[in-house]
Structures
1.
Amino acid sequence: MFYRTDTNAHGLSHDPFKAIVAPRPIGWIGTKGRDGSYNLSPYSFFNIVSDRPKLVMFSSSGRKHSLRNAEETGVFTASLASRNLAQQMNASSAPVDYGVSEFDLAGLTARLGEIVDAPYVAEAFTVLECQVTEVIQPKGLDGEDAESIMVLGQVVGIHISEQIIRNGRIDMELARPMARMGYRDYTDGGSDVFEITRPPGA
């Protein structure tokens, strides 16, 4: 099959675009508001951008709380959403009012970064502490702003749990990082593909 994206007439029951660009690593973004509130949200529009310097990015569809806090404070964290924390990751995607802590909602421990003033998931196997370098709103061919806004950050600190280090390297079979497939599908880096129903409104 072939279809043009300007008409999006693919004839399928669901838009296949995000299922094609998969698996997508999940950036479990932790931020702190100016009011001191903690925010945690999983982003499947997340990836590494550069190794020198170490840059990562997450993309917010609309002006969500993570974007607001990262813009206002200039920092964020990205925790590893591993298979053993799948349900907590999903719970943290629930749409809640600004100031409500998704850490509490998901039953997770919030810990402040060593360098950046932003919380991360203490139960996570790895964590990236990041300082914002750019906030970009991409444009389409028509010159109009995309609905998504990219936040790029330089990694200034990295946490790694000793539990997943084997023979001088991270053992990915132990870490089992979660990745988003299409639709409701996720994977943990192996052959296992499983569905998670997101909270209402997420």
2.
Amino acid sequence: MAIRMGAGKFTYEAHPDWAKLPKGWRFLEVVDAAVDSQDRVYVFSRGEHPLMIFDREGNFLTSWGEGQFKRPHGITMGPNNTLFLADDGGHAIYQFTLEGRLLMTLGTPGKAAVFMGGQPFNQPTKVARDPKTGELFISDGYGNARVHKYTGEGKYVFSWGEAGIDAGQFNLPHSVALDKDGRVFVADRENLRIQIFDRQGKFLTMWNNIHRPCGLHIAGEGEQLVYVGELAPAYPFNQKYPNLGACISIYDLKGNRLARLGDSHAGEEPHQFLAPHGMTVDSRGDIYLGEVSWSFKGKTLTPPRELPTFRKLVKV
């Protein structure tokens, strides 16, 4: 019997073994996922086969991207059956067709901009696309504290943000997403908040009390929902504290939390999370979640061990 989590209209069944990998293949850890118009699922991972494609039942279809990325980080569905992929280790953003043909490169692969210098890119994390204007918004998080705006054709427009804790400042902008009104949501991870801006980078508001928001996804045609993946505690002194991250929180566009999926503690069971990192939602409201469980914990164990890294949450 499948494990359930959540309540009411936000009840889900956890399917940790949904993805049917070819024999001998592994994810190592999944950083993010995207779905196309046919609900095919594009899984971006740090294993030997970085881009794997599945149908909605979890059947493996194909893969590509072997040897092309330094350290995968984020994936976003683009226009005309394309994908935007953020390679934070390679300091670059790529646009590919769904079949893996490279269309556009932003940044200079392998060459980082000056640390905290504000110019693109120093370990970029995610791309968001405005469906109305086609403009791209890119969170540049590990070696910068910026959001960069580009035209849909890849022309740089401007940037905003700097390191700090005040409104408009960032402490690791880890993901970015746009709502239907063009508001730009930024997961300001180590400031424990989401900041919201207009298309010109003007600060509008912030949502606080979110534990290390990592994944950020906005979905829905009418009533949009904001899905936030929260990391578990990373410090030895608070790793056993309850109710700190290790969950998916679901909000409305006003910032009201509607649901919290996950246990009070981090863990490896189907109803628990360790390191929610990137997620997507298909046309039926099912969630596909990638966790960086190897980086977060698995590689530090004795001996090192791969931990749960990808699952489907089927909406009941």
3.
Amino acid sequence: MKQSVIIVAGGKGLRMGSDLPKQFLPVGGKPVLMHTLEAFRKYDAMLQIILVLPREQQDFWKQLCEEHHFSVEHLIADGGETRFHSVKNGLALVEAPGLVGVHDGVRPFVTLEVIRRCYKLAEQHKAVIPVVDVVETLRHLTDAGSETVSRTEYKLVQTPQVFEVELLKQAYGQEFTPFFTDDASVVEAMGVPVYLAEGNRENIKITTPFDLKIGSALL
């Protein structure tokens, strides 16, 4: 079965306090984004990799690839107004039938085991997302203040989120709403259930200077 991944990288680095978009910040001597693409190439040498970048960042990315002699083959799609529109642009380059994953460009520490697990389970369940347990105490904000809720009833969601290509294309044919915060929410809006797979705790999303420190330590 043909497999693809759409890697979405549209960050502007605002929470980093940096002029350099977070996906280009160096970790271990090379940009975060390169680590992410390499993780998926290690999973499958034949995997179609589609990188979604804002058009104004694409020349800089090509320059970085030359400087770092980066040779992981990939296609580039234009980023959209929102993550929803960016994924939709990437999907236009994916042919059905098959499986397609969607992954955050700033999650470079996803393990090969998690990638394999999500694609394998998607063959049967059609829509699979990796999750990890909540280890902190949670409080729910109410009109009266706040209250403790059971953390056993919640999971933290990661990527890659993997789907049948036909299903995800159909889902992204829907009209955009602000409630679409990830690909699972788009698919669920059609009434399709999403299967939960075990993720890995190191699969952090690098969005703050503290995350960069954690990333350097993980490397």
4.
Amino acid sequence: MKKKDLKKITKDQAIKDLDKLKKDLFNFRFQKINGQVTNPSKISIIKKNIARLKTIISRKTNA
């Protein structure tokens, strides 16, 4: 996700995306344990996107 895209989404959409990314991260952790991860860099990308979404949600809540 890019910063431009994140600024345009609503709080509800950000929460839905956050839930989806958390589920993806959970699944990647299991794949990592089992040795099935094909692209380990995706884990760090997902973590960064989660942090970005949490920031957007908190900004929209306080605004």
